[in-house]
Amino acid sequence: MAELIDGKRISTMIKDECKQKVEEYKAQGIEICLAVIQVGNDPASSVYVNNKKKACAYVGMNSLSYELPEETTQEELLSLIQELNERKDVNGILVQLPVPAHIDEKTIINAIDPKKDVDGFHPQSVGSLCIGQPGFVSCTPAGIIQLLKRSDIDITGKHCVVIGRSNIVGKPMALLMLRENATVTIAHSKTKDLKAITRQADILIVAIGKPKFIDASYIKDGAVVIDVGIHRNADNKLCGDVDFDSAKEVASYITPVPGGVGPMTIAMLMKNCVDSISLQ
Ligand code: NAD
């Protein structure tokens, strides 16, 4: 029976460390401010944006909130980003994704000053991660590294299989595990015989976007299983990409959904905002 990796506890630890740093900066006369932009009123995005504002208040950071109407043009959004790039009192800029279809996501991400790119999605941030230079790292994968380290799970030399190759989770996750000296395999929708590969994993990170796809038959005895997925089932209950009840019987450690990877994303966003001071 697997031991639970407690994302709630670890994320609170990280937020409390941020709170401490924010206080230290305040004592030196430095305030930290995150600007959050939402275009349209997608209910899931509104929940995420609210949680980010609450986290800023918890750690003692300032937040600016821009709730723009659905019909905002790309030019209007770009001009707001430009204004925030230039403002000395704004340290981090975050555009809640997805943006409406008439706005090009890549153009928006590229417009954010890499020094304020606290989501870690700008090509310069991704490139820095790739060649081991300082820069912002995408919050969800960075949070998973913290979950492993703070649960005393050794990464060096371990075979890590990441399922999923998205720019936000899979790819940066694989790069981070490589940086931590794991031997890394990336599996994706075109991978042949997925099970044969996942069963070799000492650490299996699942970001496949399909509810309860990975059951015990995909998992080596004693493997560490990290479930990135978030889905709401018909009864409005949350579940992950991993079939938790089956997987927990073979894994040594496992993240639950909710309470595993989810809370780490916002905690790492707070950490990126705090770190922005030294990068700027
Ligand atoms: P995505 O849809 O962009 O990527 C899914 C990946 O899975 C793709 O790269 C695809 O190649 C791969 N895949 C799909 N079917 C497969 C199959 N049958 N076999 C092997 N690989 C397959 O999703 P994403 O943005 O990377 O997110 C993944 C999951 O994580 C989603 O459930 C999402 O909601 C969740 N998520 C959670 C957080 C968090 O804070 N906890 C953050 C981001 C994403």
Outline of this structure?
By secondary structure, the protein is of the alpha/beta class. 41% of the residues lie in helices and 16% in strands.
Which key phrases capture this entry?
11 strands, binds nicotinamide-adenine-dinucleotide, alpha/beta, 6-stranded parallel β-sheet, 280 residues, 3-stranded parallel β-sheet
Helix count equals 10
Strand content: 15-25%
Q: Unreliable runs, pLDDT <50, ≥5 residues?
A: none
Widest beta sheet: strand line-up: 1-11-8-7-5-6
Indicate the radius of gyration in whole angstroms: 19 Å
Structural class: alpha/beta
Report how far apart the termini are.
46 Å
Shape: globular
> What is the succession of H and E elements?
EHEHEHEHHHEHEHEEEEHEH
Can you list the ligands bound to this structure?
nicotinamide-adenine-dinucleotide
Main sheet summary:
6 strands, parallel
Helix content: 40-55%
Q: What's the rounded overall pLDDT mean?
A: 97
Describe the protein's architecture and organization.
Helix content is 41%, strand content 16%. It is globular, with a radius of gyration of 19 Å. It has 280 residues and is α/β, with parallel strands linked by helices. The longest helix has 21 residues, at 7-27. Strands 1-11-8-7-5-6 form a 6-stranded parallel β-sheet. The chain has a 3-stranded parallel β-sheet with strand order 3-2-4, sandwiched between helices. Residues 140, 163-166, 168-170, 187-189, 191, 194, 207-209, 228-230, 241, 261-262, 265 line the site of nicotinamide-adenine-dinucleotide.
